[in-house]
Amino acid sequence: MQIIRNLNQANLPPLVLTIGNFDGVHLGHLEIINKVKKIAKEKNIASAILTFEPHPISFFKSDRPKDFRINSLAQKLKIFQDLDIDFVITLSFNQDLADITAPNFIEEILAKSLNTKHLVVGYDFIFGKNRQGNFEFLEKEAPFELSRISAKVSILEKSEQICSSSLIRKLIDSGEVFEAGKFLTRSFSIQGIVTNGRKLANQLGFPTVNLTIKPHIIKPKFGVYKTQITIPSLDKTFPSITNFGIKPTIEAGLAPLYETHIPNFNQDIYEKKVSVEFIDFIRDEKKFASLDELKKQIRLDVDSIFKSS
Does this chain's domain 2-152 share its CATH topology with 187-306? Predict the structure, then answer.
Protein backbone atom coordinates (compact mmCIF):
# COMPACT_ATOMS: atom_id res chain seq x y z
CA MET A 1 0.00 0.00 0.00
CA GLN A 2 1.30 3.43 -0.95
CA ILE A 3 0.40 6.48 1.15
CA ILE A 4 0.11 9.83 -0.67
CA ARG A 5 0.18 13.03 1.36
CA ASN A 6 0.91 15.59 -1.36
CA LEU A 7 -1.33 15.81 -4.42
CA ASN A 8 1.24 17.83 -6.32
CA GLN A 9 3.59 14.85 -6.23
CA ALA A 10 0.99 12.12 -6.61
CA ASN A 11 1.38 11.05 -10.28
CA LEU A 12 -1.25 8.38 -9.75
CA PRO A 13 -2.36 5.65 -12.16
CA PRO A 14 -6.06 5.29 -13.05
CA LEU A 15 -8.01 4.66 -9.84
CA VAL A 16 -11.19 3.19 -8.47
CA LEU A 17 -11.64 5.56 -5.56
CA THR A 18 -13.77 6.05 -2.48
CA ILE A 19 -13.84 9.08 -0.19
CA GLY A 20 -14.56 9.38 3.51
CA ASN A 21 -13.32 9.74 7.06
CA PHE A 22 -13.73 6.00 7.71
CA ASP A 23 -13.54 6.46 11.48
CA GLY A 24 -13.68 2.94 12.88
CA VAL A 25 -13.63 1.30 9.44
CA HIS A 26 -16.88 -0.45 10.41
CA LEU A 27 -19.26 -2.79 8.57
CA GLY A 28 -20.71 0.00 6.46
CA HIS A 29 -17.28 1.20 5.44
CA LEU A 30 -16.24 -2.35 4.58
CA GLU A 31 -19.17 -2.63 2.16
CA ILE A 32 -17.84 0.41 0.31
CA ILE A 33 -14.19 -0.69 0.37
CA ASN A 34 -15.03 -4.19 -0.83
CA LYS A 35 -16.95 -2.67 -3.73
CA VAL A 36 -13.91 -0.56 -4.62
CA LYS A 37 -11.70 -3.66 -4.62
CA LYS A 38 -14.19 -5.64 -6.71
CA ILE A 39 -14.45 -2.95 -9.40
CA ALA A 40 -10.68 -2.40 -9.40
CA LYS A 41 -10.13 -6.09 -10.00
CA GLU A 42 -12.71 -6.17 -12.80
CA LYS A 43 -11.15 -3.13 -14.49
CA ASN A 44 -7.59 -4.22 -13.71
CA ILE A 45 -6.71 -0.83 -12.22
CA ALA A 46 -5.68 0.32 -8.74
CA SER A 47 -7.91 0.69 -5.69
CA ALA A 48 -7.68 3.84 -3.58
CA ILE A 49 -9.12 5.61 -0.55
CA LEU A 50 -9.16 9.38 -0.06
CA THR A 51 -9.41 10.36 3.59
CA PHE A 52 -8.77 13.46 5.70
CA GLU A 53 -6.66 14.45 8.67
CA PRO A 54 -7.68 15.90 11.01
CA HIS A 55 -11.27 14.70 10.99
CA PRO A 56 -13.46 17.46 9.47
CA ILE A 57 -15.59 17.48 12.63
CA SER A 58 -12.56 18.90 14.45
CA PHE A 59 -12.40 21.69 11.88
CA PHE A 60 -16.07 22.61 11.61
CA LYS A 61 -17.05 22.03 15.25
CA SER A 62 -14.14 23.36 17.27
CA ASP A 63 -16.31 23.52 20.40
CA ARG A 64 -16.93 19.77 20.30
CA PRO A 65 -14.94 17.58 22.74
CA LYS A 66 -11.72 16.49 21.06
CA ASP A 67 -11.84 12.86 22.21
CA PHE A 68 -14.34 11.43 19.72
CA ARG A 69 -12.16 9.46 17.29
CA ILE A 70 -12.59 5.67 17.22
CA ASN A 71 -9.26 5.18 15.44
CA SER A 72 -6.02 7.04 15.29
CA LEU A 73 -4.70 7.66 11.79
CA ALA A 74 -2.06 4.98 12.34
CA GLN A 75 -4.71 2.41 13.28
CA LYS A 76 -6.83 3.34 10.28
CA LEU A 77 -3.91 3.05 7.86
CA LYS A 78 -3.04 -0.38 9.29
CA ILE A 79 -6.61 -1.57 8.64
CA PHE A 80 -6.47 -0.24 5.07
CA GLN A 81 -3.18 -2.07 4.57
CA ASP A 82 -4.70 -5.32 5.88
CA LEU A 83 -7.55 -4.83 3.38
CA ASP A 84 -5.02 -4.75 0.49
CA ILE A 85 -5.82 -1.25 -0.72
CA ASP A 86 -3.29 -0.03 -3.31
CA PHE A 87 -3.25 3.70 -2.50
CA VAL A 88 -4.38 5.81 0.45
CA ILE A 89 -4.45 9.56 -0.06
CA THR A 90 -4.59 11.61 3.16
CA LEU A 91 -5.45 15.26 2.62
CA SER A 92 -4.95 17.88 5.30
CA PHE A 93 -8.40 19.23 6.10
CA ASN A 94 -8.02 23.00 6.35
CA GLN A 95 -9.81 26.16 5.24
CA ASP A 96 -8.52 25.88 1.67
CA LEU A 97 -10.01 22.41 1.31
CA ALA A 98 -13.25 23.44 3.02
CA ASP A 99 -13.64 26.30 0.52
CA ILE A 100 -13.37 24.15 -2.63
CA THR A 101 -16.67 24.14 -4.50
CA ALA A 102 -18.23 20.87 -5.55
CA PRO A 103 -17.48 21.40 -9.30
CA ASN A 104 -13.84 22.25 -8.58
CA PHE A 105 -13.49 19.28 -6.23
CA ILE A 106 -14.67 16.99 -9.02
CA GLU A 107 -12.53 18.55 -11.74
CA GLU A 108 -9.33 19.54 -9.94
CA ILE A 109 -8.98 16.87 -7.26
CA LEU A 110 -10.92 13.80 -8.35
CA ALA A 111 -10.45 13.92 -12.12
CA LYS A 112 -7.06 15.64 -12.53
CA SER A 113 -5.02 15.06 -9.36
CA LEU A 114 -6.35 11.62 -8.47
CA ASN A 115 -6.98 10.26 -11.97
CA THR A 116 -10.33 8.82 -10.87
CA LYS A 117 -12.01 6.47 -13.33
CA HIS A 118 -14.70 5.11 -11.00
CA LEU A 119 -15.92 6.61 -7.71
CA VAL A 120 -17.70 4.57 -5.03
CA VAL A 121 -19.54 6.49 -2.30
CA GLY A 122 -21.86 5.80 0.61
CA TYR A 123 -25.58 6.50 0.76
CA ASP A 124 -25.12 9.85 2.54
CA PHE A 125 -22.06 11.20 0.73
CA ILE A 126 -21.85 15.02 0.64
CA PHE A 127 -18.91 17.17 -0.46
CA GLY A 128 -17.84 20.65 -1.48
CA LYS A 129 -18.25 24.10 0.02
CA ASN A 130 -21.55 24.52 1.87
CA ARG A 131 -22.21 20.79 1.32
CA GLN A 132 -23.19 21.56 -2.25
CA GLY A 133 -22.30 18.20 -3.77
CA ASN A 134 -24.09 14.85 -3.41
CA PHE A 135 -24.58 11.72 -5.51
CA GLU A 136 -27.14 13.38 -7.78
CA PHE A 137 -24.71 16.24 -8.38
CA LEU A 138 -22.00 13.73 -9.25
CA GLU A 139 -24.31 12.01 -11.74
CA LYS A 140 -24.67 15.32 -13.61
CA GLU A 141 -21.09 16.59 -13.39
CA ALA A 142 -18.60 13.75 -12.92
CA PRO A 143 -16.51 12.65 -15.95
CA PHE A 144 -16.08 9.16 -14.46
CA GLU A 145 -18.24 6.19 -13.53
CA LEU A 146 -20.14 6.07 -10.22
CA SER A 147 -21.48 3.57 -7.70
CA ARG A 148 -23.46 4.26 -4.53
CA ILE A 149 -23.65 1.81 -1.62
CA SER A 150 -26.78 1.57 0.49
CA ALA A 151 -26.72 1.95 4.27
CA LYS A 152 -25.56 -1.13 6.18
CA VAL A 153 -28.39 -2.07 8.55
CA SER A 154 -27.71 -4.40 11.50
CA ILE A 155 -29.73 -5.76 14.39
CA LEU A 156 -29.02 -4.27 17.81
CA GLU A 157 -31.25 -5.11 20.77
CA LYS A 158 -33.87 -6.59 18.41
CA SER A 159 -34.14 -3.38 16.39
CA GLU A 160 -32.59 -2.44 13.07
CA GLN A 161 -30.01 0.34 13.18
CA ILE A 162 -27.80 1.82 10.51
CA CYS A 163 -24.17 1.00 11.16
CA SER A 164 -22.40 4.33 11.62
CA SER A 165 -19.42 5.82 13.42
CA SER A 166 -21.86 7.84 15.57
CA LEU A 167 -23.61 4.67 16.74
CA ILE A 168 -20.30 3.00 17.58
CA ARG A 169 -19.19 6.05 19.56
CA LYS A 170 -22.40 5.86 21.61
CA LEU A 171 -21.80 2.19 22.32
CA ILE A 172 -18.21 2.77 23.46
CA ASP A 173 -19.25 5.75 25.55
CA SER A 174 -21.81 3.59 27.38
CA GLY A 175 -19.38 0.70 27.91
CA GLU A 176 -21.03 -1.56 25.34
CA VAL A 177 -17.72 -2.54 23.78
CA PHE A 178 -18.86 -6.06 22.91
CA GLU A 179 -21.67 -4.63 20.77
CA ALA A 180 -19.33 -2.02 19.31
CA GLY A 181 -17.01 -4.83 18.27
CA LYS A 182 -19.80 -6.45 16.25
CA PHE A 183 -20.16 -3.30 14.14
CA LEU A 184 -16.40 -2.78 13.87
CA THR A 185 -15.76 -6.48 13.06
CA ARG A 186 -12.93 -6.21 15.58
CA SER A 187 -12.61 -5.09 19.18
CA PHE A 188 -12.37 -1.39 19.96
CA SER A 189 -8.73 -0.81 20.84
CA ILE A 190 -6.37 1.87 22.09
CA GLN A 191 -2.67 2.28 21.45
CA GLY A 192 -0.30 4.00 23.80
CA ILE A 193 3.03 4.18 25.54
CA VAL A 194 3.58 2.43 28.88
CA THR A 195 4.32 4.98 31.59
CA ASN A 196 5.44 4.81 35.19
CA GLY A 197 2.63 4.86 37.71
CA ARG A 198 2.56 5.26 41.47
CA LYS A 199 2.97 1.50 42.07
CA LEU A 200 -0.26 1.37 44.12
CA ALA A 201 -1.54 -1.57 42.10
CA ASN A 202 1.66 -3.44 42.97
CA GLN A 203 0.88 -2.95 46.65
CA LEU A 204 -2.52 -4.51 46.08
CA GLY A 205 -0.90 -7.52 44.43
CA PHE A 206 -2.09 -6.73 40.90
CA PRO A 207 0.63 -4.80 39.02
CA THR A 208 -0.66 -2.86 36.04
CA VAL A 209 0.50 -1.42 32.76
CA ASN A 210 -0.38 2.29 32.73
CA LEU A 211 -0.98 3.87 29.34
CA THR A 212 -0.68 7.32 27.85
CA ILE A 213 -2.78 7.54 24.67
CA LYS A 214 -3.58 10.13 22.01
CA PRO A 215 -5.98 12.76 23.43
CA HIS A 216 -8.36 12.64 20.44
CA ILE A 217 -9.33 8.97 20.92
CA ILE A 218 -12.78 8.33 22.39
CA LYS A 219 -12.85 7.18 26.01
CA PRO A 220 -15.03 4.28 27.15
CA LYS A 221 -17.30 4.39 30.18
CA PHE A 222 -15.46 4.25 33.50
CA GLY A 223 -15.25 0.64 34.58
CA VAL A 224 -13.52 -2.72 34.43
CA TYR A 225 -13.14 -4.53 31.11
CA LYS A 226 -12.05 -7.89 29.81
CA THR A 227 -9.21 -7.04 27.43
CA GLN A 228 -6.19 -8.39 25.64
CA ILE A 229 -2.93 -6.56 25.29
CA THR A 230 -0.48 -6.80 22.41
CA ILE A 231 3.17 -5.89 23.03
CA PRO A 232 4.89 -5.50 19.64
CA SER A 233 8.39 -5.46 21.16
CA LEU A 234 7.73 -8.98 22.46
CA ASP A 235 5.64 -10.00 19.44
CA LYS A 236 3.06 -11.39 21.85
CA THR A 237 -0.57 -10.91 22.88
CA PHE A 238 -1.72 -11.61 26.43
CA PRO A 239 -5.16 -11.93 28.05
CA SER A 240 -5.67 -9.04 30.43
CA ILE A 241 -8.09 -7.00 32.52
CA THR A 242 -8.27 -3.21 32.29
CA ASN A 243 -9.69 -0.55 34.57
CA PHE A 244 -10.42 2.82 33.04
CA GLY A 245 -11.37 5.51 35.50
CA ILE A 246 -10.34 7.85 38.28
CA LYS A 247 -9.60 5.34 41.08
CA PRO A 248 -12.07 6.85 43.60
CA THR A 249 -11.00 4.47 46.39
CA ILE A 250 -7.37 5.59 46.12
CA GLU A 251 -7.56 9.38 45.91
CA ALA A 252 -10.02 12.07 44.87
CA GLY A 253 -9.39 14.24 41.83
CA LEU A 254 -7.18 11.91 39.81
CA ALA A 255 -7.24 12.18 36.03
CA PRO A 256 -8.80 9.25 34.12
CA LEU A 257 -6.27 6.49 33.60
CA TYR A 258 -6.00 3.17 31.76
CA GLU A 259 -4.55 0.42 33.98
CA THR A 260 -4.12 -3.05 32.51
CA HIS A 261 -3.24 -6.11 34.59
CA ILE A 262 -1.57 -9.05 32.85
CA PRO A 263 -1.64 -12.18 35.04
CA ASN A 264 1.75 -13.81 35.68
CA PHE A 265 3.64 -11.13 33.78
CA ASN A 266 6.68 -9.37 35.21
CA GLN A 267 8.71 -8.07 32.26
CA ASP A 268 9.86 -4.47 32.00
CA ILE A 269 7.95 -2.78 29.19
CA TYR A 270 8.17 0.85 30.32
CA GLU A 271 8.27 3.29 27.38
CA LYS A 272 7.16 0.50 25.04
CA LYS A 273 4.21 0.86 22.66
CA VAL A 274 1.28 -1.45 23.34
CA SER A 275 -2.26 -2.00 22.07
CA VAL A 276 -5.21 -2.90 24.32
CA GLU A 277 -8.38 -4.43 22.85
CA PHE A 278 -11.62 -4.03 24.82
CA ILE A 279 -13.52 -7.30 24.56
CA ASP A 280 -16.34 -6.94 27.10
CA PHE A 281 -17.56 -4.80 30.00
CA ILE A 282 -17.29 -6.39 33.47
CA ARG A 283 -18.56 -3.79 35.93
CA ASP A 284 -18.76 -0.09 36.73
CA GLU A 285 -15.97 1.61 38.59
CA LYS A 286 -16.97 2.27 42.20
CA LYS A 287 -15.58 3.60 45.44
CA PHE A 288 -14.89 0.97 48.08
CA ALA A 289 -14.83 1.53 51.83
CA SER A 290 -11.23 0.30 52.13
CA LEU A 291 -8.26 -0.91 50.12
CA ASP A 292 -8.94 -4.42 51.44
CA GLU A 293 -12.42 -4.36 49.90
CA LEU A 294 -10.96 -3.07 46.64
CA LYS A 295 -8.37 -5.86 46.64
CA LYS A 296 -11.09 -8.49 47.19
CA GLN A 297 -13.13 -7.08 44.30
CA ILE A 298 -10.11 -7.05 41.99
CA ARG A 299 -9.51 -10.72 42.83
CA LEU A 300 -13.15 -11.48 41.99
CA ASP A 301 -12.82 -9.55 38.70
CA VAL A 302 -9.65 -11.39 37.72
CA ASP A 303 -11.09 -14.79 38.67
CA SER A 304 -14.31 -14.10 36.78
CA ILE A 305 -12.35 -13.56 33.57
CA PHE A 306 -9.48 -16.00 33.74
CA LYS A 307 -11.12 -18.95 35.49
CA SER A 308 -13.96 -18.88 32.98
CA SER A 309 -11.64 -18.56 29.97
Answer: no
